[in-house]
Design brief:
- By secondary structure, the protein is mostly helical.
- Helix content is 77%, strand content 0%.
- The chain contains 13 helices and no strands.
- The longest helix has 19 residues, at 107-125.
Length: 273
């Protein structure tokens, strides 16, 4: 069944409100669209599931995380039933729900979902597909947050190798993956991962490829220099990063890194609670 025109006519304004930053109005319209989709199309119609996901995304942006999580749990259950466990929209629903679990502090559940999703991404899209590489990086980030840094490192190494092969050595996705790997090598408190030399090589490559204009990449290079006891270089590069950051939060974090390097101490990533 095709959604009636009067239902579709409500979807476009909700998107426009999103773009314009009028989130309250967007939420109200998306709630109305979902109610109508459920009534007219049925609770399991693909358009209804899409409306649920859109509303969950807006709830998340609005900070209504519990409502977003509840909707995303419903979406995943229905996507698996309607589309099947390997459908791209099912895989997207898995990643979105994992994000909600992580935000809610339910990291074990987030990791379980992401670990289930990654083999499916590789099967459905192939190991070098951008969506698969994004799933790899998402799981690596979550491993790091959970303190499982050896597993995160292995995934990041795989991602860099695939990005170089599929996207090319100077593609933004490749540079981002290299930066993530360099950061992991430079800042882990696990001795088996403290490979500062490789961290410097990766970070210098990324910084050069972006003409020293990306403060996050400069921040990583400073951490790599500090890991290899090159504190004068670390201080100079962190000051470059600090000058390019815009938000107070970014400046505060970079300033704390700078203080460490000025005291001849490397930065160590702490396990998230």
């Amino acid at each position: 069944m095709i959604a009636p025109a009067w239902v579709m006519a409500m979807v476009a304004p909700s998107h426009s409100y999103d773009v314009a930053g009028r989130l309250d109005e967007s939420l109200k319209l998306r709630e109305q669209v979902l109610t109508l989709d459920r009534k007219v199309l049925g609770p399991e119609h693909p358009d209804t599931l899409h409306a649920m996901e859109n509303l969950a995304n807006d709830y998340d942006v609005a900070g209504r995380r519990d409502e977003s999580l509840k909707l995303r749990e419903q979406v995943l259950t229905l996507e698996r039933k309607v589309q099947g466990p390997e459908h791209p929209e099912t895989l997207e629903a898995m990643v979105n729900l994992a994000s909600s679990y992580d935000e809610a502090g339910r990291r074990d559940e987030a990791l379980k979902l992401l670990e289930q999703a990654l083999p499916l991404f590789r099967k459905v899209f192939g190991p070098g597909h951008p969506d698969t590489l994004e799933a790899v990086n998402t799981l690596a980030n979550t491993y790091e947050e959970a303190g499982r840094r050896d597993e995160a490192l292995k995934l990041r190494e795989d991602a860099v190798a695939l990005d170089r092969q599929v996207l090319g050595p100077e593609h933004p996705g490749t540079l981002q993956a290299m930066n993530g790997l360099a950061w992991a090598l430079a800042t882990s408190d696990a001795s088996t991962m403290g490979n500062g030399t490789n961290a410097v090589q990766f970070a210098e490559t990324v910084v050069a490829a972006t003409s020293r204009k990306n403060p996050d990449y400069l921040d990583t290079l400073a951490a790599a220099y500090a890991e290899t006891q090159q504190f004068d270089k670390a201080v100079a590069v962190e000051r470059e990063a600090l000058a390019l950051y815009h938000t107070e939060r970014q400046k505060k974090e970079a300033g704390s890194h700078l203080s460490l390097y000025q005291s001849n101490k490397p930065y160590r990533e702490k396990k998230s609670p």
